[in-house]
């Protein structure tokens, strides 16, 4: 049996009895679009992915080759939010909505901020940044456009499916999406039932039916000199037997790594063993926007780790605060062997690496795994509380 929510009852201080509120039936998807465009603050985004809070409504029906996006919004920090509005009584909506939002996201990954501005102008928004500045007057124009273009290219979007109410099968749609391993983005399934107040106003009770955190397959911006392909051509059009075998070997390496890993922090999420040359541990920053990348490079006989984060995300401020305190004790807590590295676009990280020789040899492989598991625990012990504390500081 599907979940059911009773209509709310309004109680006032002077009334002797409560007044049951009448549900407002939404008959047009355009009505949901209009409401979302006028009141983006009604969407429970903080419960889905805090990196996308306070979005600014840009336009409705933003044109793309995959079709018009019902509602397009973006934060002042350049984080795009795409909303698809559906009446769940429509069976076609249930079948097609997942594919539709994924198609939107795929199309926008080829776009830049200029493309958004061009299409928004066709929908009556003469200047994209003027719209942003009308809500966030302190926003920096160059930083906004750079961040939006970068987030589009990385597929860093929040995709919301917003409906009028729960119907049988809706949550199953979301579980099907989860099972397909297509989660390059953050997703949320939201209902916004509306009720009529005695004075003619509306009571809107948004509910998150299902959500996902951002997928762990992140776009890694590497410190200078590092290649994460680990000998594999990741752009190959199809797998060959050697590539498949190499993926199996990498997965065995990380399975052995995880089997040896002993973490002091009981709250640290443990990832699964990947088939890539690196594994990631999420740090406590909003929107899973910071993580520890642990890697190996077979050609160099090298293993190591470094802090990673998304540019223009809540984690960037936290990581920079950690770097500022690096010489005030954090470096010593890690034994003085890790170091601060500045990459392209002045992106900062803290890196440590060590070479062990031929990792296909049992002795070198075992020594590398011992060192790697110990230092991973050390990095998590130092940086997890430091990033949590820095992220909690008011801006």
UniProtKB/TrEMBL annotation:
The name on file for this protein is DUF4268 domain-containing protein
What InterPro entries does its record include? tRNA_endonuc-like_dom_sf
Q: Which organism is it from?
A: Albidovulum marisflavi
């Amino acid at each position: 049996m599907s979940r059911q929510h009773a209509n709310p009852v309004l109680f006032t201080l002077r009334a002797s009895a409560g007044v049951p509120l009448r549900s407002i039936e939404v008959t047009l998807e355009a009505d949901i679009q209009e409401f979302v465009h006028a009141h983006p603050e009604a969407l429970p985004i903080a419960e889905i992915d805090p990196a996308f809070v306070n979005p600014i409504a840009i336009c409705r029906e933003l044109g793309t080759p995959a079709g018009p996006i019902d509602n397009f919004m973006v934060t002042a920090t350049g984080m795009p939010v795409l909303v698809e509005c559906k009446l769940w009584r429509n069976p076609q909506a249930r079948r097609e909505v997942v594919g539709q939002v994924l198609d939107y996201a795929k199309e926008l990954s080829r776009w830049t901020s200029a493309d958004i501005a061009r299409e928004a102008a066709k929908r009556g928004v003469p200047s994209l940044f003027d719209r942003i500045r009308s809500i966030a007057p302190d926003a920096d124009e160059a930083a906004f456009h750079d961040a939006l273009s970068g987030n589009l290219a990385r597929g860093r979007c929040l995709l919301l499916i917003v409906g009028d109410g729960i119907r049988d099968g809706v949550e199953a749609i979301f579980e099907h999406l989860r099972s397909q391993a297509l989660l390059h983005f953050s997703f949320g399934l939201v209902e916004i039932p509306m009720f009529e107040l005695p004075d003619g106003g509306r009571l809107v009770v948004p509910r998150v039916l299902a959500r996902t955190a951002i997928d762990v397959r992140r776009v890694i911006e590497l410190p200078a000199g590092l290649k994460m392909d680990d000998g594999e051509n990741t752009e190959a059009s199809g797998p060959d037997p050697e590539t498949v075998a190499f993926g199996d070997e990498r997965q065995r390496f990380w399975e052995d790594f995880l089997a040896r890993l002993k973490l002091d922090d009981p709250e640290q999420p443990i990832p699964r063993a990947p088939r890539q040359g690196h594994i990631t541990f999420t740090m406590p920053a909003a929107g899973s926007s910071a993580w520890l990348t642990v890697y190996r490079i077979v050609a160099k006989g090298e293993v190591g780790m470094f802090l990673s984060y998304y540019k223009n995300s809540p984690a960037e401020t936290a990581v920079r605060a950690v770097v500022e305190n690096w010489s005030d004790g954090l470096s010593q807590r890690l034994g003085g062997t890790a170091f601060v590295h500045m990459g392209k676009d002045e992106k900062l990280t803290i890196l440590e690496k060590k070479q062990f020789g031929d990792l296909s040899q049992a002795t070198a492989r075992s020594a590398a795994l011992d060192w790697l598991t110990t230092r991973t625990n050390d990095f998590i012990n130092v940086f997890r509380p430091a990033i949590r504390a820095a992220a909690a500081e008011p801006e």
